[in-house]
Amino acid sequence: MAAVTRTPLIAGNWKMNLDHQQAIALVQKLDWALKDAKHENGSVEVALFPPFTDLRSVQTLIAADKISFALGAQDLSVHDSGAYTGEISGQFLAKLDCRYVIIGHSERRQYHDETDAVVAAKTKAALRHGLVPVICVGETAEDLEKHGASAVPVAQLEAALEGVAPGADIVVAYEPVWAIGSGQAATPEQAQQVCAPLRAVVADKLGADAAAATRVLYGGSVGASNIAGFMREPDVDGALVGGASLKVDDFAAIIRFQKHIGV
Ligand code: PGA
Asked: 3.40.1360.10, 2.60.40.1930, 3.40.640.10, 3.20.20.70: which CATH number matches 9-261?
């Protein structure tokens, strides 16, 4: 397969943090922090995933100040419109200039009983509206012990991509559940050992070209001090960052991983 350059993607999942005023302040501060000419952040794509109620404010700010961050949502409905109280359509997200939407985060699977079938339906809903699904997969500590690291994430991704058209534009996020918010990140080697088979699933389901172009992210206690190690791995193309994405200095340092990646 010809070598393909994938633009690294650093994604900030704010979860249920920051109201729309706090969101505006954080985006402005992050933009200023990254404009510091002494610290180039290279060709890295930055995507922010604020709560739904912040999206319009962040969209407006990004457009007005010509900020180069991509916008994403943390979830979407499987439905396009209708009598589904509390649900948010992919159509609305596309209208707010969202490029991405997180699907199947372990917190949705755990607290909202999202099954693989729901994740597959949401993946299709995202693609239907021109959004790039950021499909999250990952094993619990119990899965890890019983089945090893890759079996559950591989099965989850296979299920999510069932019936998706070859060549679809997706992002995959490998997030071991035991590493999320625990301060206990996987090692770069552990991440690579799962991200490589996940790319193989994309090849199998969506074709070799899609697999070569798809960004596979690692997520789970990523911070400024460990990002460089992950980014050195051949099948890790970025990170889905929770806690550290709420701290401007930490998130800016993660975005600038190329500065401290070393050799
Ligand atoms: P964390 O969260 O970086 O706080 O571990 C990652 C995630 O849940 O996406």
From this structure: 3.20.20.70
